[in-house]
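Async update (no meeting this week)

Hi team, since we skipped the sync, here's where things stand on the single-chain job. The sequence we agreed to prioritize is pasted below, unchanged from the tracker. I ran it this morning and attached the output directly underneath so nobody has to dig for it. Comments welcome in thread, and please keep replies under the output.
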Amino acid sequence: MFHEDLVIRRARDGDLPEMARIHFAAYPGIPLTLEDRIAHFRDDPRLPLEGNWVCERNGQLVALFALYDFQMYRFGLRFPTGGIGRVAVAPEARRERIANRLMAKAVEIMDQNGVPLSILHPFRHGFYRKLGWGLVEQVRFYRIPPQALPLFQERSAVRPAITSGELEDVMACYHKVAVAYNGMLVRDEPVWFEHVFKNRLVYYYRGDDTGDVEGYIIYRYNPHAADTEFLASDLIVSEMIWLNERALKGLLGFLSSQHDQIGSVDYYDHFNLPMEQLLNEPIMSGGHRSMILGAETAWIGSGLMGRIVQLRKVLTQGKFGEGRGKVTLKVKDELQPGNAGQLTVEFDDGGVELNDRRVAELTMSTDIATFSSIYWGALSLRDARYLGMVEIEGKGRDASFLDTVFSFPKSVCLDYF
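Output:
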């Protein structure tokens, strides 16, 4: 049961000291003082102070969360998307289901504002899955000795982005890639300069024939602590984007050429590069070898989680695969009554028609977390059925069209919040 004495409201300036205290207790590993956290709440280029929500119990702040107003590229269009972050509960109020109440409020706010999608970085997957968020993407982490990368000659076309014009060309390159993928976020200039570029180096690849920036890499250094290694550091790639093969070769060749002063390159790959094919020795720095594994090349992670807030809007504005047929969806959603219940969907080679009254001979039953993972391309319908996460009923009817219409491209999101 939710507490009746909780009040959730927008944050105000006078809340900042208590917000910083609660955030410090929830995220002690973030290297920020209480004063730094107050400044971050106040000056975040992605979120005004009133985009933070606080929870009071008997007049005392006990929890908070942030609700970002994002735009996500999907099918070449921009979808309003609520990004949830900074979920924090004070130590004295934990294990009382307050975080559940916060997420219910977040879904309510997004629904009222007509926001059909939500994304977040989970602190515990099981917690968010129960509340309707499903896995969005798979990310591979590589720690690569730079000399293991090919020294492609295309590296000669890689240059530092120094001028405002060069940085604008980098931003334009991101946009070209973002509209071609599902899941990447729209970025305005404050986000680029106060978040993406800040305290980082930017290098780009420009095509000689096109004159356009066709790829770029954004990175920072992580110096080694020992005084005897003052010339050595690790290179941390925060973002790498490319439009074509030559740009990718240029960026990889650039990383390879850094091996004299770089111990390893840390790279979070959202695009599933066949790195084990690229590396001349496919083993991580500090990795292990075994008879079955061969060599430890990467660590695999689960990335973002996403949630469909408004199922009907997603069904009518989405881009589905070719196929014809009807199915009655029965979706479980404890936080969003508008998603729950029964809805008949008729697919006609990309077109979609909804009907609340008619029941199809095929019925597809699942929960909103599973359906969200399917929608983001992280889970195929076939695998979901095999794992018992989706049930399809209706004897004597061909359900194969469902595998086609619910086939979505994998999603990519490079933003952290």
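Quick observations from my side:
The CA atoms of residues 310 and 338 lie 7 Å apart.
DSSP finds twelve helices and 21 strands in the chain.
Reply here if anything looks off.
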